[in-house]
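Q: I have 373 residues here and want to know how they pack in 3D. Can you give me a structure?
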Amino acid sequence: MVDVAAVDLLLAALRSDGYRVVGPTVRQGAIVHDDITTMDDLPVGWTEHQDGGEYRLARRPDRALFGFATGPHSWKQFLHPPRVLEWRARRRADGTGFTVETPVEEAAPLAFFGARACDLRAIAVQDRVLAGGEHPDPGYAARRRGIFVVAVNCGTPGGTCFCVSMGTGPRAQAGYDLALTELLDGERHELLVEVGTERGAALLARLPSRPPGPADLSAAEQVVAGAAESMGRTMPGPAEVPVLLGRNLDHPRWDEVAERCLSCGNCTMVCPTCFCTTPEDVTDLTAQTSERWRRWESCFTLDFSYLHGGSVRPSTRSQYRQWMTHKLSTWWDQFGESGCVGCGRCITWCPVGIDLTEEVAAIRGEPPGGSPD
């Protein structure tokens, strides 16, 4: 157990070990991930109200450090950045050709502070996709290497969260060095710290702490259990959904959702597991330098599915169906797990409030929020 004041000591210890510490902070009306140096940078006393197409911050009656769920940012932006320079070609002064440069990324190792269980599972998914297999992404592997993770067991789920349905939370199960559970009751404000790795144990040993007692462990269990019982959304079991979607590719619900969908790609941008990219070639006006950039792409754009002669998914119906069936169904065929971790970001940040849990329920034959007759 550590007192809340030890958070500053923890952050200072990470920085002294050479880590760039990134975590939740308030900016422009949302809780986002950015550089943090002290506890005052955290969203102290803030929470969020989330629903389909709705997000707003609100003050809490206490000074909780982690009294919120998830904002628009996931940790993907640091491991799989939105835009990456792959190479640069410069014309030689003597006109004999070009010199090609491949940039080498050199930066301080990252420490993720305040990662939720759903996001840890999302990182594991991207590890499987981008760092596993025969052809790993060297840039991703380099950024991923050596990251120190301080997780937070969730006590305040959002209105669009359904991690319990996906088996990804609210308790962090793996992928962390230290895991915190915030205990805030009256004058008491402490953190139960669980150790996940040897380097996590070494860092904890540098902080003032005390062994937890039975009451501390019970209080921490109640925090997580309360979050599990307060999910804003639910989803059928992962064994059912792939089969359900696979046999309903022509369901009329795809036309209904297409009438609302703007094909804006917000859902893919905020999703912590979406990984698709596209190359972008640019040159300067003098034609002396050419660059190739890799940037995030969305399956909601016509170019994403362009083959010679045109796009194979020209309709919003086909684009949304591809996104949802891949995320919840065919991802299992490719990677042996679901592409959805139940964070609810795609629901919250959809401008028209399209809810994939509602879409699954409709295809399953349920009224919104109900059960089959």
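Q: Anything worth noting?
A: Residues 18 and 113 are 14 Å apart (CA to CA). The longest strand covers residues 83-91.
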